[in-house]
Give the backbone structure.
Amino acid sequence: MIIRNLTKNNVIAEEAELAASKFRRALGLSNRGDFEDFDALILKPCDQIHSTGMTFTFDALFVNSGNRIIKTYENIRPNVVIPRVEDSAFVIELPAFSITDLNIEKGDIIQVESGK
């Protein structure tokens, strides 16, 4: 899946994975060593995340049903619980520093595409 930032006219991720089942969302990135075979994880539906059992930091974008970023978290460390974000429809987890490197901001509109 491709994730585009329509506001900034750039690509956030070219090989995103979707975690749609309850089990896969709960597992999240905790069974991964890093972003090895993909560059983003989409947790849908989702309004709260954790980093329990993880060994690396990451960034997170909370997105509403209108595809607007409503909250961002940078460099989330292992074993942290991020509070519930009201009105979040899904979360995009990205490698650490992606928010800064890609100039992602609250209010940006994103688009998730199924293929290249």
